[in-house]
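Quick review question:
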């Protein structure tokens, strides 16, 4: 009987000792979960506040990067003017400039643009702004206002050789037969491509400053004269001027009829 009582009392102690264990464990787990759940929203809120602040600065920085990268997209293209005329725009040079003020330095950009219609009209302009696209727009607007007309022979080359000079920039331009192409480099090529010249030979013998080269090239182009303008100024016929080189009257008249401008 004593052994049976011992066997019967042992499970009671075990049961009595085991009963508090499952009752207390869930309570502690629930309290821990509730504490963690209360801390997570606050932590997420702090993270969100920090993320918005950092994201705002990154977005502003990305906007400036996209603006500066726009200069490569405007190297050359065709755009329509306000009058519906299709113009050729060439970005010749872009430079980073700075202005010293009381608080330090302000950095900006200077753009040099050549604009032409490909039919004998061309102009150049430059502009400065804090961002590249705005500087290009200013330069393009200035170039459109200063477009000049250049006399072309057969619509593809110059009538005669010429020289241009501005400051230390010196250039030589020569007419060329059909098939020669545009033999020019740097800023001068942009001018002749916008002008619509297909055959020309050029040489720069002075400063390589793009601003001086552009102005010297325009000086040479503005000195170009056509037989038609000379004949009108002297009060003679175009055939009379063309016939002085030893050509026959028929050849002179044919050449005069072929002169468009």
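Suggested answer, residue by residue:
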């Amino acid at each position: 009987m004593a052994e049976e009582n011992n066997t019967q009392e042992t499970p009671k102690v075990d049961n009595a000792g085991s009963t508090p264990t499952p009752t207390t464990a869930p309570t502690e787990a629930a309290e821990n979960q509730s504490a963690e759940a209360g801390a997570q929203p606050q932590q997420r809120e702090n993270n969100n506040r920090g993320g918005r602040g950092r994201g705002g600065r990154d977005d502003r920085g990305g906007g400036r990067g996209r603006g500066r990268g726009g200069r490569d997209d405007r190297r050359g293209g065709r755009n329509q003017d306000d009058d519906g005329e299709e113009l050729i725009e060439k970005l010749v040079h872009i430079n980073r400039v700075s202005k010293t003020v009381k608080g330090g330095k302000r950095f900006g950009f200077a753009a040099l643009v050549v604009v032409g219609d490909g039919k004998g009209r061309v102009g150049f302009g430059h502009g400065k702004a804090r961002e590249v696209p705005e500087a290009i727009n200013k330069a393009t607007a200035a170039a459109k206002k200063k477009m000049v007309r250049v006399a072309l022979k057969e619509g593809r080359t110059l009538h005669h050789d010429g020289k241009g000079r501005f400051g230390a920039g010196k250039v030589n331009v020569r007419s060329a037969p059909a098939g020669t192409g545009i033999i020019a480099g740097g800023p001068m090529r942009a001018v002749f491509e916008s002008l619509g010249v297909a055959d020309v030979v050029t040489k720069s013998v002075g400063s390589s400053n793009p601003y001086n080269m552009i102005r010297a090239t325009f000086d040479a182009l503005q000195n170009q004269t056509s037989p038609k303008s000379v004949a009108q100024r002297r009060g003679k016929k175009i055939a009379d001027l063309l016939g002085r080189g030893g050509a026959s009257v028929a050849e002179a008249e044919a050449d005069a009829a072929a002169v468009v401008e």
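Why it works: Residues 1-25, 50-74 have pLDDT under 50 and may be disordered. The longest helix spans residues 20-69.
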